Amino acid sequence: MLGRIPSTTHPELLVGSASGDDAAVWRLDDKRALVSTADFITPVVDDPRVWGSIAAVNSVSDIYAMGATPLFALNLVGWNRELPSEALGEVLLGGGEVATEAGFVVAGGHTIDDPEPKYGMAVTGLVDPNRILTNAGLLPEQDLILTKPLGIGIITTAIKAGVASREAEQAAIESMRRLNRSAAEAALAADATGCTDVTGFGLLGHLGRMAVESNLRVRIELDSVPLLPDTIALIEEGIVPGGTRRNLAANEQLLISNGHSERDKLIVSDAQTSGGLVFGVDPHATDETMVQLSAQGHRCARIGRTEVGDPAFDLR
Ligand code: CO
Ligand code: CO
Ligand code: CO
Questions:
Q1: Cα of 177 to ligand 1 centre, how many Å?
Q2: Which ligand is in closest contact with the Cα of 135?
Q3: Which helix (H) or strand (E) holds 218?
């Protein structure tokens, strides 16, 4: 459906909708460009304050994924009037706490009636137009670094079904609540040019799109991809969100599965809420980048390489 929206161009629009990037980028002058994105989600956990904070972290993630610094945000809220208004206050409080932590300002917003609550933000940031991180910015022979474990979609589905272990639930919440700010700083310090955040389309969908836009092949070593606790066991019990199955179906033409099972293909397709960044670095910079990320508490890993070749997601 997104493909039917006429793509618009403008001399100052440096990144628009055609490349599937995380945010739009608009040049102000030679040194400054505005970055603009909007995102909102349905509840992923029961606690309204925690949900609000996760939604805000998820919204600002697209700013970091472009290598930008957030300036200010507008709240986007769908709220069911039958729910207590104190809970809405908690949601907004959670979002505001994230804004304070990340150093941006919540400058307003808009609320509509909605039977199913939704919360997120439209965020505006600033970037050096010469240092934008894009889907098309991967280069051949780079190491690929992922900064959060996969399995969020599986675990949040298990939470809703009441079958998640305490350990898995806590790990998923901690991961979704983690800002991608210092991960983006590590990517920029390593002179990365290709970066995205792994969200609704899963690792296969987002990294596959980067392979297409960068015109190269990504080779992923499944054994090195970090996973949240219980992810494999839950898939084997059939706890798989519909979005994850749709991601696999939509991107199967990009996937070289090398005989991997359906379970393994679902792992790399899992729809993430507030997932980590994935970016490419020169192999000489990998160790230092991993040390920097680990020091900031990121559960990061080198998950594979980029290679010259027709665009594909080569799962090893
Ligand atoms: Co994104
Ligand atoms: Co987004
Ligand atoms: Co980006």
A1: 16
A2: 3
A3: strand 217-220
